[in-house]
Design a protein that fits this description.
Elements: H1 2-17, H2 21-24, H3 27-38, H4 62-80, H5 83-95, E1 106-108, E2 111-118, E3 121-128, E4 139-143, H6 144-148, E5 155-161, E6 167-173, E7 181-186, E8 192-195
Antiparallel strand pairs: 1-2, 2-3, 3-4, 5-6, 6-7, 7-8
Helix pairs in contact: 1-5
């Protein structure tokens, strides 16, 4: 059902929005096709480029703008008729989304770490391996959601705790250019210190 509905949407859109008689019969398209045919070589297969006139590196051609505006409007009118089908496909994809399990714990000495979702936030949790100890308790080391909210784009690369477990060093990309910077965060005060790499 899903494949057939998707195929119907894509194929019908392709035929209606792009292979239209109006496109093929545009005066510029007919002129280019005729010119290409007249200049064709008898030794090589003739090829036509009826849409070469649409190339406008200056982005100033009113003729091209008008043509594209008309086709955008035509595509919008067609897609309006497919709203119910689009919503049906969206619901199917959302309902079939896989539920990912939490990653295994990372063991470091007598404690273990992993990212979990707590109260709609992704946090790095630290738990002692031996829960029976009186001084053993769980703590949140790093709140990934709060950190990411400080930037329009955020990607966490890697992280490393200091030997005394008070500081955590993280590599972060906050611009989307894969240029990761190092930040050291005090897990007690949440004070962050950006490191510059020479």
């Amino acid at each position: 059902m899903k494949r057939s509905a998707l195929y119907l949407l894509i194929s019908s859109f392709s035929v209606s929005a792009f292979s239209t008689p109006e496109t093929a019969q545009h005066p510029e398209s007919r002129a280019n096709a005729a010119s290409s045919t007249q200049q064709g070589s008898t030794l090589l297969p003739q090829s036509t480029d009826a849409f070469s006139w649409l190339r406008d590196d200056s982005r100033q051609s009113e003729k091209v703008r008008h043509f594209l505006t008309e086709h955008n409007q035509q595509a919008a009118r067609f897609l309006t008729k497919q709203t119910a089908l689009q919503q049906q496909l969206l619901n199917e994809w959302q309902n079939n989304a896989p539920q990912k399990a939490e990653k295994p714990w990372l063991i470091r000495g007598d404690v273990k770490y992993r990212f979990e979702t707590r109260d709609n936030s992704r946090v790095l949790v630290e738990q002692p391996i031996h829960q029976a100890a009186e001084d053993s308790k769980e703590r949140i080391v790093f709140n990934l959601t709060q950190r990411a909210a400080q930037s329009d784009y955020y990607s966490l690369g890697s992280w490393l705790l200091s030997p005394n477990k008070r500081f955590i060093a993280v590599t972060e990309d906050v611009r989307g250019d894969r240029n990761y910077t190092v930040t050291v965060i005090d897990t007690h005060t949440q004070q962050a210190y950006a490191l510059s790499i020479m």
